[in-house]
Amino acid sequence: MGLRSKLRVQPGSKVRLKDIDASFHGDYTSAEHAKEDLDKNVARMTELQEKLYGEKKHALLIVLQGIDSAGKDGTCWHVLRAMNPQGTQVKGFKQPTEEELAHDFLWRVHPHVPGLGQVGVFNRSHYEDVLVVRVHDLVPKSIWSERYELINDFEKMLTQHNVTILKFFLYISPEEQLSRFRQRLDDPARQWKISEADYKERDYWDQYIAAYEDMLERCSTPHAPWYIIPSNHKWYRNLAVSHVIGKTLEDMKLKLPEPTVNLDDIRRKYHAAVEKSRGGN
Ligand code: AMP
Ligand code: MG
């Protein structure tokens, strides 16, 4: 089985996160060892995004979810670094504003879905409405429990418009989270990221795991699969995510558009322009 199918949550399957090793790193022994493949994946993403941008027939939506410090920000950075900024956008979803809360839960999300030719990354997403909202009873169960189907239908509609959807659940262990919190405390460059909420949410770890499992089971569909990315090792996380993105872009059979002009004519015009500019000097 290839890496991509191994990471994908098969639609309809059960997910038990405690059976998954967040420190998994496949056959790679270290960041150095993985570097060659990572560089290849990144080069493939760069080349294929350029085609996606030129062709304007497909869009790619990448959804990132994971507990605090799982690496959503780092993954955004890593993915986007491979891509031409003209064809990409990132949208982070925070606590909803009053205006957002006055609308249905997909209202704030829909305008940020990438258009044809574009790659969009969601740093958190509509899935918060079956995660934090569920864990903290922000709406009654009768409401959030209907959202899985609503999300599947929404995503189905997007794929009908040639939006390919990739959803990555970045999975870290509670020990790894504590070690990342420690780094944040120790490193002045990371201290700005510390929030009280991170510690509060940590107390709800088991409830989050239950909510993640339901999300992964109920919303990994053939048209918009979830991938579980073991993320204790940042280098493996980047390798795995870039592998899945690269393979998915390859499957799209992207093609740069044919030139809209007659190239022989244009070549003649070019040579005439060269002649003229020489004559002018
Ligand atoms: P961060 O991603 O660290 O900037 O934090 C964003 C915060 O917004 C997290 O604590 C999320 O749980 C919270 N958040 C995002 N979406 C929602 C939502 N739909 N309802 C409530 N809280 C949300
Ligand atoms: Mg945070």
Tell me what the structure shows.
It is a single chain. The chain is α/β, with parallel strands linked by helices. It has one domain: P-loop containing nucleotide triphosphate hydrolases (Rossmann fold), CATH 3.40.50. The protein has twelve helices and five strands. It has helices at 3-7, 31-55, 72-81, 98-101, 132-135, 141-144, 147-160, 174-186, 196-202, 205-219, 234-251, 263-280; strands at 59-66, 88-92, 119-123, 163-171, 226-230. The chain has a five-stranded parallel sheet with strand order 2-3-1-4-5, with helices on both faces. Helix 4 links the parallel strand 2 (88-92) and strand 3. It is globular, with a radius of gyration of 22 Å. The chain starts with a helix and ends with a helix. The relative contact order is 0.21. It binds adenosine monophosphate and magnesium ion (MG). Residues 92-96, 124, 128-129, 132-133, 197 line the site of adenosine monophosphate.
Summary?
With 281 residues, the protein is an alpha/beta fold. Helices cover 49% and strands 11% of the residues.
Task: List its traits.
single chain, 281 residues, alpha/beta, Rossmann fold, five-stranded parallel sheet, 5 strands, binds adenosine monophosphate, binds magnesium ion
